[in-house]
Amino acid sequence: MGSQTNSLGENYTKELETPTNITIKRILGLLMDIIDEDNERKREVISLGIGDPTAHSCFHTTDAAKEAVVESILLDKFNGYSSSAGLPTTRKAIASYLSRDLCYDLSPEDVYVTVGCTQAIEIAVSFLAKPNCNILLPRPGFPTYALCASFRNIEVRYYDLVPQKKWQVNLEAIEALVDQNTIGIVIINPGNPCGNVYSYEHLEKIAETAKRVKTLIIADEVYGHLAFGETPFIPMGLFSSITPVLTLGSLSKRWLIPGWRLGWFVINDPNCTFKSPKIIERINSYCDICASPTTFIQAAVPKIIENTKEDFFKNTLKMLKENSYICYEKILEIPCLNCPCKPQGSMVVMVNLNTILLQDISDDMDFCLKLAKEESVILLPGTAVGLKNWVRITFAVESSFLEEG
Q1: Phi, psi (deg, nearest 5) at residue 188
Q2: Which of 7, 74, 11, 17 is nearest to 388 (CA)?
Q3: Does residue 353 sit in helix, strand or coil?
Q4: CA proximity to 217, closest of 195, 201, 235
Q5: Residue 302 belongs to what H/E stretch?
Q6: Which of 38, 127, 272, 283 is deepest in the core (most CB within 10 A)?
Q7: From the centroid of its chain, how far is CA 103?
Q8: How far is it, in rounded angstroms, from Cα 391 to Cα 396?
Q9: Which of 390, 379, 385, 396 shows the shortest CA–CA distance to 45?
Q10: Tens of pLDDT along 237-257?
Q11: pTM exceeds 0.70, yes or no
């Protein structure tokens, strides 16, 4: 490799050493820059790095969603601001949608509509913040949590997911990390970046552990219901009678509309052990300083949820399952890569990289840099999600595109 790539790799490593620089988009942008600098490149870029299925024609949203948005615009009633927490009809529709899988009914007042799940993360982390506090995050995990925590001066403590146990949470590690200043435990299910889906029994143990250490759970369910393996998706809110659960989610992945930026932050607390006038006032005050999602998209949500047929979801799951199988089988043929368990959900999978079997490759970042430059294939280095010498592969792409990659 030339000195230019080595220099880029060194700069890349330095940037990753600063938590506020670790974003998936930033890292993938650096990899694309490396490809673009090679003017003699003849190959098509094969990006298996970013989790946006809409880049491929096989993944497109339902007609019901498009029709609902068009109707919302033509009504000419949703061109102004909405309330900070979201339109009442939108909050009611999301509450009803999420209540389908619970043993109690959420109130519309439990729901706050956000600009995608990213803003839901920011709200959850920010309103819980207090002096000298800490938050428990999974490793590997989604780096936006650490980014938000760093801006709020929140100490991040990582607990490990165990690859040999289908990426289950190390519950003993959680008990060892928690103290009186812990504001919450983040659980991502279905898993990003691991592609795992937690069982009812494991989620119940997580809830019981949180109760025992006297903290709440922040449940990231942006990939909710995108489970295609043996284990069905179970919402964490089902265990909120054990410990309060703040559920974060969006329409982005299940409806294949990430660019519409419609998410939610939901308080699951049927026993009202966490929910209090002071807490609600704090959340509402924080929402007042945040921009709410586009009003006409909000207005379309009730019909998007109501009119989407089950066949649409089944077809998406069928494609994801087939692609996950292709991805897993192809990885088995590559000596330097090892996938500890077959993906069960979401759109991504973590793969271990054996650098000993590779020539002139120092680590996962070096591997991804050289793969981008020499083969125009983009993968996300595991360092970006907290696990060195692993890579994350996105399989929500055209199957032929995936096989070639």
Answers
A1: -110, 115
A2: 17
A3: strand
A4: 235
A5: helix 295-307
A6: 283
A7: 25
A8: 16
A9: 379
A10: 999 999 999 999 999 999 999
A11: yes
